[in-house]
Amino acid sequence: MGGRWRAASHLLARVASSTLQPRFFSVVSSRPLPPPPTPPRLSIFADSILARPLSAVAARAAYFDGDELGPRLQDPGRPCLPPPPIKEADESENIPIKSYFLSTSIDLKSLQAENLGNVLPPTSRSSNYVALKYSALPSDIRGHGSKERASHCRYMVVSQYGSVILFNIEDQEIETYLKIVRRHASGLLPQTWKDDYAVKEQPLLDGDMEGGPDYIVLKALDTDGIRIIGSVLGQSIALDYFVSQIDGMVEEFAYINRKMQTTGTFTMDRKKLLQLVGKANSNLADVIIKVGLFERSEIAWREAKYAQIYEYLREEYEVTQRFGNLNFKLKFVEHNIHFLQEVIQNNRSNLLEWCIIFLLSIENVISLYEILKDSTQAPL
Fold it and tell me: How many CB atoms lie within 10 A of CB 138?
């Protein structure tokens, strides 16, 4: 009986061990063994986690979505970070700017006295221009309760040397504002020089400013910005006028030189030449002294953002390069003036010499006549 129980217990142990441990066969079958079953994949994301280092897994697991079952890992088909909220379009306001050069001089004192209620208080010691602010747009246009900005107002920057810069003024209103300035101007030009520019306000702009073709983008346009822009644009439009004047002189001297090359003579009047000398010197003095082309703006000196606008506009309008070209043309005019002065002086010297020769000849003729007369009247 005991032997039967031992045999039964031994058989049960063999059966249990065969179910728990893999069985090995020594006989090799001719049929290939089937591939081992692939373990079920938990998810694509789980595989990517297993293939990554621990730091990447921790960083990836930090982003989750919440649903009714609680937080879960982000689906790998979607971006790691939730998409940023869609921003509304950055509303920008376009402020047109028109530059005019009317005359060679404007009386700023009388202009301020007549428009005292519109004069903006100065923020620098510069006295060669004045800024005026005119009626703002109605509140129903700009919105009730909104803060007044420069784009809601009309501005005018008037320079002593004859430039007028208009901000946010419609085309049909321009002549009205120019008449205000003409009443205090002297030396009105037969032709008005003009140019167009623009400022775009973008409150969501990353930096203080950005440049563009014929416009500049600012976060906000304030009165100091208007003064900076007005001063540079005023210098630029004035420089256009003075360059045209010097170009006319260069063309005139080029014509004289071509005529001298053909005929070999010079017939310009000395008075005409002196007028050209005075015109060249006065233009150079106006550019340097009146326009103040090389005077540093005090507003730009105080704050970096205005200095950036100032330098950008001067670079955009090539103020320094254009003055260099103007100076080169003036040197050409000066060289021709010196040459023609020498020619005129030599012509005068030659004329004086011929006059002296003529007088001496007359004197000799008179002396000879007296000698012959005395000889005929002498007694034999």
Answer: 8
CA 272, CA 340: separation in Å to the nearest integer? 11
Using CA atoms, how far apart are residues 204 and 227, in angstroms rounded to an integer? 23
Question: Residues 203-224: pLDDT tens digits?
Answer: 888 888 888 888 999 998 999 9
Beta-bridge mates of residue 66 = 71
- Find all residues with CB under 8 Å of 135, minimum gap 6, and list them: 153, 154
Terminal C-alpha separation, the chain = 211
| Structure tokens that stand for 356 in this block | 């002296």
7-11, 44-48, 303-307, 316-320: least confident range: 44-48
Query: pLDDT-based confidence at 31, cuts 50/70/90?
Result: very low
Q: Give all domains of the chain, ordered by start, each with its CATH number.
A: 93-139+148-325 (3.30.310.10)
Question: Can you give the C-alpha Rg of the chain in angstroms?
Answer: 46
Tokens at 282, concatenated:
């006065």
Hey, is 272 helix, strand or coil?
helix
The CA-atom distances, in angstroms, between 75 and each of 40, 46, 65 are 19, 11, 9
Residues 6+ apart with CB under 8 A from 330: 246, 280, 283, 284
**Measured between alpha carbons, how far is 108 from 126 in angstroms, rounded to an integer?**
12
In the 8-state DSSP scheme, what is residue 173? Answer: G
pTM: 0.66
Q: Locate 1 and state its tokens.
A: 């009986």
Task: Give the pLDDT confidence of 295-317 residue by residue, as tens digits.
Answer: 878 888 888 899 999 999 999 99
pLDDT of residue 362 exceeding 80: yes
Give the three-class secondary structure for 153.
coil
What's the one-letter identity of residue 308? Answer: Q
C-alpha to C-alpha distance for 97 and 165, rounded to whole angstroms:
7
Task: Report whether pLDDT(49) > 70.
Answer: no
Contact 60, 52 (CB under 8 A): yes
Residue in 282, 151, 125 with CA at minimum distance from that of residue 221: 151
**In this structure, what token pair is assigned to residue 366?**
């008179």
